[in-house]
Amino acid sequence: MLAVCVSPGGIPKIPSPEGADVSEEGLRGDGHDHEKHRRFDRAISVQDEELLDELRAKGYNVSWGTMGENLSVRGLHVQRLSPGTRLLFSGGLDLELTEMRKPCFVLDAVHPRLKEDAVGRCGFLARVVRPAPVRPGETIRILGPDARPEWP
Question: Buried (b) or exposed (e) across 56-86, using 16+ Cβ within 10 A?
Fold first, then answer.
């Protein structure tokens, strides 16, 4: 995992080098100022770093947290996973993917076409199965319908 991002509300979220504590509600210190973000099944968002690479190659000024994601990961191909897939982090956090994430309407402020170029690739929302602190650099094991036999 590359980045843990939080914000008191809205985007961009800011990378936290020390990570964050996680409860059933999501990352501590991360604002949930809209009703749709106050659901346990949408507690945390996970996004592939590869999407940011592609968007940067198209000329967008994006970095960790720009898209409103909580966790940026590399090499998991989150978009290819299915609801119900579990992500087990080496620090003890256990997440279950619940639904594909849609681009946030406030991305228009970054660039008018950003949402269009990101739609269908913004990662997943997840519920917290087992709370634990989460830190950049942790490894992630996939369990469930998309399981891999060993740690990446």
Answer: eeeebebebbbbbbbbbbeebebbebeeebb
- Structural domain boundaries in the chain: 3-143
pLDDT in tens, 61-98: 999 988 889 999 999 999 889 999 999 999 999 999 99
**Residues 122, 100 contacting (CB under 8 angstroms):** yes
Query: At CA 42, angle to CA 113 and CA 67, rounded to 5?
Result: 25
Residue 32 has pLDDT above 70, yes or no: no
Average pLDDT across the chain, whole number: 87
Q: Count the neighbouring beta carbons within 10 Å of the beta carbon of residue 117.
A: 15
CATH for the 3-143 domain, from 3.90.380.10, 1.25.40.10, 2.40.33.20, 3.90.79.10 = 2.40.33.20
